[in-house]
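Late entry, evening session. Most of the bench is empty. Finally got around to the prediction I had been postponing all week. Sequence below, unchanged from the version circulated by S.P.
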Amino acid sequence: MTAKGAPDTAAPEQPAAPPHEVGHEAAARVLRDVGRASRSVRHAVTRQPVTAVVLVLVLLASITAASLRFAQGRQVPDALVPFRGFAVTTGVLALVLTLTGVVVLVGASERLMGSRRTVSAFLATSVIGAAAAAVVGLVDPDGRRGAALLSGAEGLDPWTAILGTVMTASAFAGPLWRRRIRVNALAVVLTLFLYAGHTADLSAVVATAAGWGLGEVFRRTPKRTGWTRSSHRETRVLLGTVVLVSAVGPVIALVSRARVGLLAPLAAVVGTGPADQPSACRADGVAGECLHRLLTYRATDPWSLLLAIAPLLVLVVGAVGLFRGSRFAVWLVVVVDTVTGIAAAVTYTHVPGRVEQLRGSEDHVVVVLSIAASIAVPLLTGLVLLLLRRSFTVAVARSRVVTFSVTVLVAAAVLAAVVFVVADASPVRVHGPLGLVVAVLGPLSPVVHHRDLPIRDPGLRTVLGLVGPLLWAVVAVAAIRPAGVTPGAADSDVSAADRERARALLVAGGGDTFGWMATWPGNAHWFSADGRAGVAYRRTGAVAVALGPFGWPDARGPALTEFARYCDDNGWTAVFHGIDTTSAAALTRLGWRTLPVAEDAAFDPRAWTTSGSRKQDVRTAVNKARRSGSTATWSSWQDLPVATTRQIEAISEEWVADRELPEMGFTLGSLDEMRDPAVRTLVAQDAEGTVLGVTSWLPSHRAGRVVGWTLDVMRRRSDAPNGVMEFLVASAAEVMRDEGVERLGLSAAPLARTPGGATTGDGVETLLELVGGVLEPVYGFRSLLRFKRKFGPGLEPLVLAYPDPVALPAIGVAVVRAYLPDLSLRQALALVRGRG
């Protein structure tokens, strides 16, 4: 296309370059690429020399070991014994995974704690792991007690030192990644050790434990002792990881050659079904041989392994559901673990040839301990999930639970009927019909019930081998939706629909300053008969603590009295928390009482400026941040880079870990609420991209248009410079001023208000005053109110409206429970004693 008015003439053709010039240009381009790559390699080696040396040693040692084994048919010579710990001898895939582990894990460790600490941790943990392997060689029961000390190093591999190094480096990470690194590393090494039991697995466990201790020695900064609290999200991640790893453990044991792990008997429980049980476990089996065969059972073909892992698929579905916070997933895993524990108990306490009659080289105490652990571990896992079930707040609709139950029961009935029909047609009669029913459980059916089954009949043998895995496959598939594995499926049908309806009303008609909190999970919703207004509430016992009504302005006032009538019809006491005095006036005319609980701080950002003596601190913070190169990014969570969101998660987890109480909710958001696409985040970063602090902002609408933003989450790095929050709020005001937003709300600190205000002397006010004072050292609500005054906002009192003074004790408890649903009696008493 030519420019307008220019003559339409073709550009003259350029003469083709001679072939030798083209070749020279291509060669020069290759040389430039090689030079650029070499500079990148030199830069990486300079920054992480230990990682580079370990990478080269692993590669050379592995190639040397493979060459000697294939060319000369022997292992690494004695002269090269110290390098055995660097050699990967189990295949090309293992070598690639190990090299990746060196680059990622050792590289990250070196970045965290420096080169000198990294090389010290690598050498120390490898030596300690080698010592553990050497001890095993010295006390080996198979005639190798005279082995030399270094021969135990044959049980080593590079992962021993890699895991020890990364565990050492975890001490230098933040609370979030420190906990994740330690839990994941321990879960992996303990699973390998408990289910497989190789010498290398023991070395990895010892090296990992040594790395934990070494990290605490290396890290000289003050360390917090005792239990460190996790956020609900982090609790879900950690428990989901543990359950996921526990589902992989039996598979490892079934294919392992060693099968000396402490939990190896548990693998036999899920690995042997009615059709493939060891021959010695039948009625005509030799006493003592049944237990021996179970303890040494291995899946010898892919089909047997596929059938054995069917129950473990249910655990995988449950683990993913735990990641999503599903309460249904908690009960699903608890049931599967309980069934597994009971199956192990019945199998190993009633099996033909009891433990007392065990013959062979197995140590009696070790076998008893191994069987006890195989019974206790799944039961304890279920118990831990039950104790921490409050962290899994996502409920599921009853219709989904009913659908799941009906599907599983129908499948079990159909499969049982098939088994009975085939058994009836079998030429060998079945003397114990109960065994046929239990056989439907397949791999988890106790072996004691299989003795009378005529598994020599090919038809019945095939059916018995298929029904159990099919049933567990049905359970796994049916649990996908109620456990929340698919996106959006982890939510109750009713609550999801109500939240979407509330969201639509808020966008179309609007609400008060905190209206968007009505869309948060955990709230129940009531809607007026005409559908033009609604109320979000949380019920504790017979008290419903509600936020202010939302919807069309003319419908909000009547919604107050209609909701109160709805609660009265259900035998509840309605309480409106944090509503303004204008809304409360409609209730006081009906005889309700009010008491102030907070003060809402807000200003018009269209007139924002940092001038004036009252904003001196804000002005100083903004100027300091800009001089240092700090920036503030206004964005939704989904549009932030992954590296930024990971830093925000770490900062938030550190904030939660520093509190002695669980996370608060109700009108206080967290990272879960920050992920809402309608919410905006404002992130402060320094010149290197390190996140210094973050805030989140909830929208306020009028006629479908955003007219205001309200501050919700505030988090900052522990080592961030002073003034980061002032810089963020001032930057938000500038963004809103440029967008023409009418209102910037600094939100209200719950249970905090200006000292010296009028009091009513009611018991509930005394209780909330006590709670506010107790929580002040933990959450700093009153100091937060002082912080907001720096921006010169207008203050509007917010009140608690309640109908009946007789219900004041229950109302006070319900309000506290709304904010702290996980507060235990022990924590409450400890806080009150601390205040006293």
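Two things to note before I forget:
The longest strand covers residues 691-702.
The CA atoms of residues 174 and 260 lie 37 Å apart.
Will write this up properly tomorrow.
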